């Protein structure tokens, strides 16, 4: 593949525009503040509704605490929906991988609070007598409006939570887990009638009603617009088609694509999209693959390693195959950059977004260094970039030199930090882009921290689920 020199090359001493990075920092702080404020608001609504006064007696106290935990659970449930709605400013500022981690944390918290809510409410309605809890639970379920639907929604959420535990995820294909995870939306939807028909705290005041309807009105359109509407519109507008599939290694292929109005597809080097190849069975399962070349306004390229399941089928995709996409996503772009000099560190097929960044980022000769661990994918292309743009390339082949090392054999004496500083003496003054297996990346991050690289200048993308 030819390497273009379209990106502007700044002179030494020039300043990278750090305004996007500062904007993203402000968005992250604002998002965190809004989540904390929402929990404060629902607690205030509980207090204003007599929640504290009801704590004076045993049965009323149980019911009151049940209402409070129900409010917190409902609030976090809707926060989860907003976190994974692919809202562009939030996704750009946080990144999908970090959003997924926060989403998982909020999910387990919401689920736990929901179970506590169910137990406390039932116990309170049973007059504080444990022996009366089973009968009271049955009465509440069959006699109260919306409770059967809420129970069905709870079962859906239990399914999602159980399959989200790491031990369960390890036994599931990513595609199967993703399909099961969609039941969370059904669970949220089934819970709404119960909240509106029997939820005292949802209708106790005009302020409470306005707050909850506002939150629901934000969550539902966000999913419809960003998770469903925008991917459909972009797929129809750009009509992406496969032009060729080219082997890169024994188990790695590159897929070249083109379409309509490619110059209007808002994608940047380093980003990834979720891809659906319309080849027959399995087309409904989306897979996240990073661009392995900087977009040029005419075509795209992704590079895929055979990791089993559907990735092995990419090799057999025929030219002309239509492709549906979601995205682009990811923060492994020029956006968070604040320094002129950069270091790109990648392993295995994780080198693909770094290959795109090495082409697409602006930098002066000598200001970009690439450390490539493992098989030398794109070796010829990196050689061209080294010759034409001054990219410094260090290949680190061979098996790990130690179980706790991220480096290969033959890199010289010293611990990982000493070797890193030998290869990139000024690494602490650079932005670092990192992509590779999760455990390997964690080891690199520890070395970078030991070498004095601030966490804010380490830009990582992971696809763990």
Protein architecture, described:
- This protein is α/β, with parallel strands linked by helices and 465 residues long.
- Helix content is 49%, strand content 14%.
- It is built from 15 helices and 11 strands.
- A 5-stranded parallel beta sheet has the order 9-8-7-10-11, with helices on both faces. A 3-stranded antiparallel beta sheet has the order 1-2-5, with no helix packed on it.
- Strand 10, helix 15 and strand 11 form a beta-alpha-beta unit.
- It is elongated and about 80 Å long.
- The N terminus is likely disordered.
SSE topology sketch:
Elements: H1 19-48, H2 58-83, H3 88-94, H4 96-125, H5 133-143, H6 147-164, H7 166-169, H8 174-181, H9 183-198, H10 200-203, H11 206-238, E1 241-249, E2 252-258, E3 272-277, E4 287-290, E5 299-305, E6 323-329, E7 342-347, H12 351-360, E8 368-373, H13 379-389, E9 392-396, H14 416-423, E10 431-435, H15 438-450, E11 458-460
Parallel strand pairs: 7-8, 7-10, 8-9, 10-11
Antiparallel strand pairs: 1-2, 2-5, 3-4, 3-6
Helix pairs in contact: 1-2, 1-3, 2-4, 2-11, 4-6, 6-9
């Amino acid at each position: 593949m030819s390497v273009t020199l379209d990106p502007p090359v700044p002179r030494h001493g020039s300043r990278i525009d750090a305004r996007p990075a500062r904007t993203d920092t402000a968005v992250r702080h604002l998002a965190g503040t809004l989540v904390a404020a929402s929990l404060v608001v629902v607690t205030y609504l509980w207090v204003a509704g007599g929640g504290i006064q009801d704590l004076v007696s045993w049965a009323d106290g149980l019911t009151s605490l049940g209402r409070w935990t129900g409010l917190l659970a409902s609030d976090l449930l809707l926060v989860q929906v907003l976190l994974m709605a692919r809202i562009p400013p939030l996704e750009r500022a946080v990144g999908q991988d970090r959003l997924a981690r926060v989403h998982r944390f909020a999910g387990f918290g919401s689920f736990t609070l929901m179970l506590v809510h169910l137990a406390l409410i039932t116990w309170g309605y049973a007059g504080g007598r444990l022996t009366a809890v089973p009968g009271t639970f049955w009465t509440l379920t069959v006699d109260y409006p919306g409770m059967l639907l809420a129970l069905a929604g709870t079962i859906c959420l239990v399914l999602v939570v159980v399959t989200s535990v790491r031990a369960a995820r390890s036994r599931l294909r990513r595609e199967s887990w993703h399909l099961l995870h969609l039941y969370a939306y059904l669970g949220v939807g089934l819970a709404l009638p119960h909240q509106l028909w029997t939820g005292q705290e949802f209708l106790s005041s005009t302020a409470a009603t306005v707050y909850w309807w506002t939150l629901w009105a934000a969550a539902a359109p966000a999913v419809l617009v960003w998770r469903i509407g925008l991917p459909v519109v972009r797929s129809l507008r750009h009509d992406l088609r496969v032009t060729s599939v080219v082997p890169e290694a024994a188990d790695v292929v590159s897929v070249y694509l083109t379409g309509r109005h490619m110059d209007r597809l808002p994608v940047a080097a380093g980003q990834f999209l979720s891809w659906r190849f319309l080849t027959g069975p399995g087309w409904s399962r989306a897979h996240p693959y990073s661009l392995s070349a900087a977009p040029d306004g005419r075509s795209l390229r992704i590079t895929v390693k055979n990791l089993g399941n559907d990735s092995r089928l990419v090799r057999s995709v025929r030219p002309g195959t239509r492709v549906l996409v979601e995205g682009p996503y990811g923060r492994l772009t020029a956006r968070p950059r604040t320094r002129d000099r950069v270091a790109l560190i990648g392993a295995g097929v994780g080198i693909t977004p770094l290959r795109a960044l090495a082409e697409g980022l602006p930098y002066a000769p000598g200001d970009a260094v690439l450390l490539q661990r493992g098989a030398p994918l794109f070796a010829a292309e990196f050689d061209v970039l080294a010759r034409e743009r001054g990219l410094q390339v260090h290949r680190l082949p061979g098996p790990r030199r130690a179980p706790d090392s991220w480096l290969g054999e033959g890199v010289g004496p010293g611990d990982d930090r000493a070797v890193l500083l030998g290869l990139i003496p000024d690494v602490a003054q650079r932005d670092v882009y990192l992509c590779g297996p999760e455990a390997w990346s964690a080891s690199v991050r520890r070395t970078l921290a030991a070498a004095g690289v601030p966490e804010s200048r380490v830009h990582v993308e992971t696809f763990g689920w």
